[in-house]
Design goal:
There is one protein chain. It is built from 7 helices and 13 strands. It has 2 domains: 7-170, Spore Coat Polysaccharide Biosynthesis Protein SpsA, Chain A (Alpha-Beta Complex); 173-253, no CATH class. A hairpin with a 2-residue loop joins strand 7 and strand 8 (122-124). Helix 6 (203-218) packs antiparallel against helix 7. It is an alpha/beta fold.
Length: 258
């Protein structure tokens, strides 16, 4: 007689004491909740243990793809793994949908999950922030992560889509937004440089305008009102302007080829 299939929820966390307890509480329906702590200096690990999670101390942090693969390999008692970030929450509707897939063991081996992103306290349904699908529900042994930042999943089998969204408390404050974008700018500029794309003076004007038009008009950011306008301006500034200024710095610091 075959054993019932088990599902584990895994949280990759560092210095998430303000989020971790509520995140774990939204995942109590899973057979096991695992927190992979990548070097917190706050009470993340202690609070996670108090909330009933199994804590794995994985330090130093190398990159997200490697860490997620370590977590996959650690959850040996699970047939399925559901990855959740500490600033995300699973709703009861999403929990029931995931449990149904785990119990049924349907043909797809990986599932995309939509997200409801809350930015500066506003549910943001446009400007590219919905459905914001993330590959999070994986059949162990049939999926691996690749690429250090903005990691991608390679599946050995078919993929599917879940209907109910994760709740994502994306950015609470402008300072938090700026800090995260500065990290992305360095990575994105490096990718552009490696692709052979070079900065030109016209980028200072054209790239912010293009990015704003894409977010605000093409992706209908205007439908989120004044919040959408503010957000699209910020994204145009960081992705359209600062990324290309960072690209200029990479060009100037790179040895010239003869």
């Amino acid at each position: 007689m075959s054993h019932p299939l088990r599902g584990a929820a895994i949280i990759i966390a560092k210095n998430e004491a303000h989020h971790i307890t509520d995140c774990i509480a939204s995942l109590r329906w899973a057979d096991e909740v695992v927190v992979c702590d990548t070097g917190s200096s706050d009470d993340t690990a202690t609070l996670a243990q108090q909330a009933g999670a199994r804590v794995i101390l994985h330090h130093p942090f190398e990159n997200f793809a490697y860490t997620r693969n370590v977590a996959l390999d650690t959850a040996t008692d699970a047939d399925w793994v559901f990855f959740v970030d500490a600033d995300e929450r699973a709703t009861p509707e999403l929990a029931a949908e995931v449990q149904g897939i785990v119990a049924g063991d349907l043909p797809p081996v990986g599932y995309w999950v939509p997200r409801h992103n809350y930015i500066f306290g506003h549910l943001t349904l446009h400007a590219g922030y919905y459905p914001d699908y993330q590959m999070r529900l994986l059949r162990r042994g049939r999926a691996r992560y690749e690429r250090p930042v903005h990691e991608v999943v390679v599946l050995d089998g078919a993929e599917g889509h879940l209907k109910h969204p994760l709740i994502h408390y994306n950015y609470d404050t402008l300072d938090q937004f700026r800090a995260k974008q500065r990290h992305y700018i360095q990575h994105d500029a490096q990718e552009l440089f490696q692709q052979g794309i070079r900065w030109r003076p016209r980028n200072v004007i054209l790239q912010p305008l293009r990015h704003f038009w894409w977010r605000y008009i093409t992706l209908q950011g205007y439908r989120d009102g004044l919040h959408g306008l503010r957000l699209c301006i910020l994204l145009a500034y960081y992705y359209g302007l600062l990324t290309y200024l960072q690209l200029r710095e990479l060009q100037h610091s790179s040895p010239r080829r003869l």
